[in-house]
Structures are given as C-alpha cells and as structure tokens.
C-alpha cells in the first residue's frame, strides 16, 4: 500500500508527543495547526501521546466509550493498558485515525490487526476501517503464501492472548498446513509430467524452502504447525527434515549452565520426540539424529517415556547404526559408578532389536514382498543379514567399552551374551573385546575370567585368532587347550580333504536353505539334527579319551626326564620352565571325567571341561 509522508512525533517541552505534520501534507489532510493545543492525552506504557478527540472517536469504538465515561470533559487523560503491540502499534493506529495512509506489511500486519481489535476500529464506526484493511492484507498476501504466513506467525507470539482471541494464530496455522500439502501434491504431479527426472531436487534442498523458516518460531507455535501438517498428510520424510532442522537450530549452542537452560533443553527434546513420525523398521528418521536426541535426552534428564520412545526407535532400525551412534556418554547424575558409556541403554536397545519378532507383530505385516520370499533363518535373508550387522556392531561396542576400568565384568558379560549363537559366524571381534577387557582389568577373579571366555565360541575363531589365543597368557588354560584341540581337528579335516561337520554342520542347521520351488526339502529336520549332535558328542568323547591316554604317557616320560635332568643339569633354567608348564597341563587333566554332551544343546557346549563326574566316559 502507498505511504503518505508525515512528520515524526516530536517530543514537546513537557515530555509529551504531539503530531506536527510537514508542510507537504497540510494541504491534503485536515490537520490542526501547530498552535492548537490537544484536548486528549493517551498513555501507552511509558509513552504519552498529545492528541485530539475527534479523529480518534470517529474510528475507535473503545476510545469513544472511554471518553463518554470520563468525568472531566475539558482535559482528559486515558490510559490504554495491555494494548497489543505497545506504543509503536498505537502510533500507527493514531496516524490512520488522522487520515494518513500507513504501510501495512508482513512485519506489522499482526500488530495492527490485534490493535484494531483492541481499539474496536471496525466498519461499525467508519468505512474501510483499520480492521478491514488488515483483513484484506491477510487474505491477499499472507494466508496464500507459506513463507509469509510463517513470518506473520512469528510476530503473533508477542501479541498473545489477543492474537489467539481473534483466531489469527489458528487461521495462519491452518493455512500453512493446507498450503504445504498443496505444494507437496503439485510437486508430485510435476514429477509425473516430466516423466520422472533422473535426480529430482528435494524441496528441503532449496535455499527458499519454507521449512527453514519454522526455526524462528517458538516451541509451542512450532508444535502446532507440525501437528497441523501431520494431520493434513505431509510426508513423513518431510516432517523428519523439518524436525532435524529445528532441533539443529534450537539445541546447538544451548549450554546447560543453570536450571532454566536445562528446563528449556528438556522441553525442546520432549516436544521434538513427540512429533517424530510413526515408529517403523523403515523409518525416515536418520539413525544419527535419533542417537543425538537420545544423548540430549539423557543429558537434559527428560522423562522416562521420552527416553524409552527413543530407545525403541533406535532398536527398530539398529542395523542402520554405526559405532558412534551407540556410544552414549554417561551423565554425572547417572548411577553408573564412573563408567564412560551408558551400557544400560545399549542393553535395552539391543534387546528391543532381538525381540522384534516376539512383541511387534504389526511391524511384521509391513515387510516388503521381496522379504517374504526368504526363509527368515537363512544367512541370505534380510533378517539374518541385519542380525549379522548388529553382531558386528555389538562386538565393536564391546571392544570400545572394554578399556573402561570402571566397567564391571557382569555388565560386559551381559552384553556379550545378548546375541543368539547364530548371530556370529566368526567370533574374532568378541575375542578381541574380551582380550582388551582382560588386559585392562588385571584383578579379575578366576570365575569372572572363566565366564568372560565362556562367551567365546572357539569353533568360530579364525586361524589367526586361534594362533593368538593359543599363546595368550591372559586367557585361562582351559580355553587355550580348547583352542588347540579345535585347531587340531580343523587341520585334520583340511588334510583329509573333507568338510568339518563339527564346525559347520551346527551352523547349517541354524540356517536351512529354502529350495527354488519354495518347498522345505532342503531343510534338516530337528530329529536328524539331534542325531547329528549326539554323533558329534560321541566322537568328542572318544577324542578326549585318547588325549587322556596320551597325557598319561607324557606324564610318565615327564617324570623320568625330570629326574635325569635334575641329576645331570640341576641349574638348567630352560628345563625348569618346561617342567613348570607341563605341570600346569598335569594339573588341568587330573579330573575324574567329562560330563556327557547329549544332556544339553550344542549351542551351550562351549567348554569341554566345564563339569566333572566320577563315572568313566564309557
């Protein structure tokens, strides 16, 4: 709209302000001459305006009513408390009352609309009054455009509660939601008309994307806008980008130095989490963003429901995570006894991922048809592929937290035992983590050391890991012997040119392959699998018996060699060392018997010499 120049409000000697128009405007407006004293003083906050009754009464119903109620008709002073927009808004309204054309723009339209409502500047008192002028600007310029609507909505926050009373906020929020969905539909139609361009430009990648403007809104208004666009059907990936953009601008640089800043941080995180798209294995929310929210949630001490929601979301798509995503620092107010990382949250997250099939039937219905053609226990299935990714992630996490001297062995073992046996095809990563833990925690009890090593399936160690474990003095002697034993069987099968059913047969039983016709003819029945396990156990018993016989012969030779060496070379340190090591083996194998293997499943049979019986193996 056009602007008619007008003199500034110049302060008088008394500190009041009176209108003094420039000479260029006197001939076009009915303006009182400068020496005419004002008959009305209006106070707005700390500012006083020296005005005249007639221009204001002709367009403002509120001022007219106040003057009628005034007792002193000669010198009247009115106080407009709680006027929305303050003295700046009233100055514009007063100029309008004096017949000057004011500029209505995105910055002041909300202010003028609320002021016109407060002063009752409606059509009842004058044609084309200020209220109708502002309404015209809103309908023609603000509401049809998303960015303009967001700009005006920002100014509405300082005009509460009047902006809510006149439904200005609600109208703008509804307009944003409607226009956002229209824009989404228009963008989709344009892609169809252009025959699917190779690389379409996303709306969020545009410099003028309206979603970036939402960062200027307060938390409550932002929540109302996001709720509105979600209700209208805005795509979840767009909602996720809006939330990420808002969180980045709101939480960045926010230091939790006092109670107020921590409260603000907590409110922002909880609102953003409540606005996240629906939980799903194929959520459009990036894992890195969920991880950052969880770290912020723990730091700001948000509600348990908020943290649980984030943990479940991360657990649903854990196969997309990297190590940095699950390294969650422990806060000072936590109960982790000086730990570096929050292992309790990680334990719950991995448990959620492993229990998806049991308690998340609705998610199973969302699988793609491409997934349904697989047997979900086969190594090539999407499910098994995800489990293997998660197993590698867990082993990397264990290796990272193993250097924490304050981490208890029980928590480390609980994490190591989370995954099922078939999740790890190779246990080198777990062996590395256990070795680091043993190296850092030198004062472990023998029982804890034994339980740690029990988590490692020696049958799945690579040749390099076996070689390292056989010479690793930090491992219990039982495990070193077990590694050597399995390595001997592996070499024997390799020399015979056959396949080691002991090592790979049990794995294949976990992953039965589906035939091309879809029938289960290629699967091994549970009865056949059980018979195979029993056969393997019998072979193991025979091998242990042979080893005992050989050790008995070695013990006899050892005694005779020791006697001869002591007589001939009493100070030979080399043979003393050899005697000491052979003594350890002698102590190891002086047991009554080995418990039968058929009484427990093969997955639990990780140590051959766990329990002993008095009866013979035969």
From TrEMBL:
List each copy of the BTB domain by range.
Answer: 38-106
Which keywords does UniProt give here?
Answer: Coiled coil, Phosphoprotein, Ubl conjugation pathway
Any single Pfam family the record assigns to this protein? BTB
Q: Does the keyword Phosphoprotein apply?
A: yes
- From the UniProt record, list the coiled-coil ranges: 530-557
Q: In which pathway does it act?
A: Protein modification; protein ubiquitination
Which species is the source of this protein? Tagetes erecta (African marigold)
Indicate what this protein is called per its UniProt record: Phototropic-responsive NPH3 family protein
